[in-house]
């Protein structure tokens, strides 16, 4: 599961003055490294207090070691290559081999020591978003600590004072570093294992990138016009499904470190937001929803009882966020006569293809794309093209999944007679086109 990077070289340790003598430099824990892009099995703790671990979509949890009563982790900030989906790889910055970085899991009351080694070409820090910690551990470069220079290692030490779901990211050249993918999630489990327990617990962080067709690097200055809408730096059909056993209590923890809000929608169920990055929502304040907006710089966690078997779409409800790289300058031609359009366009560009006059369904159309560029809408289900991209995946609720089995169970076997079906229409009328207005509008 992990490939070991080995201990830091002795030379690097000599320079680790930032450790300030409170821990012996030689005792820096190994930095685990991940090179797989599929969800890794839950990492059950082998020491320290017990908890039911989370799984990270297309990601993993960072292993730790106990050192006395301290739980020690080692993050390495470094350039990485991330595959967004098959056919597209992007040069990002991340942690321990991936962007986003691994999920850090601990238990309320734990004392944690997090080593951060900087292998980026510029300085960085790590800010622990939402966590109640001493000011000097807050990771705001210049304000609460010196920036961590390339090649240096700093240590963050604090107690996990409250349980919940939090995020980490740099507060150091942050426009660039977050636009390059530096972020991750922190899950602090309640000390009391009977506090709102669930059977399956998923976590991911949302981020967006502008990677122009045919290129390999995000444009970090982009403020609004993104074209890659990602969950854990993956886009559909590259995002893992959420396999769930029928009857499971399921928790989904979602962080948003993009620059816009995302209304996240689950089909076939109603859920309640039970936790934010501010803490647990009291039961009396919860209410049923099918979509919950995840604001910028925030975490929303919902709990749902998976009592409806099937393949349930789970996606951002901004329709442009369920698409991959595209031009946004395409005009809406629905209702325009294809013949007139072809005539007009043909005069200007004789080899062009007029499209879009009956909608833009592209399921059966293959258009040539530049290298390293995904189709705008893609994915295939058992009934045909799904025509989605970006922030879309499927919660797969099945009767027969084992407890920690998170493998894709494949397409749902619909019970006979439960799928929408075609009927013979006696008089198939031609497709309606909007008619000419019959009377003039009074101005
Ligand atoms: Cu969205």
From TrEMBL:
Q: Which InterPro entries match?
A: Cu-oxidase-like_N, Cu-oxidase_C, Cu-oxidase_fam, Cu_oxidase_Cu_BS, Cupredoxin, TAT_signal
Report the residue ranges that make up the Plastocyanin-like domain in this protein. Answer: 83-192, 216-331
> What's a BP term from Gene Ontology annotated to this protein?
cell division
Is the keyword rRNA-binding in the record? no
Q: Which domain of life is it from?
A: Bacteria
Question: What is the recorded name of this protein?
Answer: Multicopper oxidase with three cupredoxin domains (Includes cell division protein FtsP and spore coat protein CotA)
UniProt GO molecular function: copper ion binding; oxidoreductase activity
- Provide the alphabetized UniProt keywords: Capsid protein, Cell cycle, Cell division, Metal-binding, Oxidoreductase, Virion
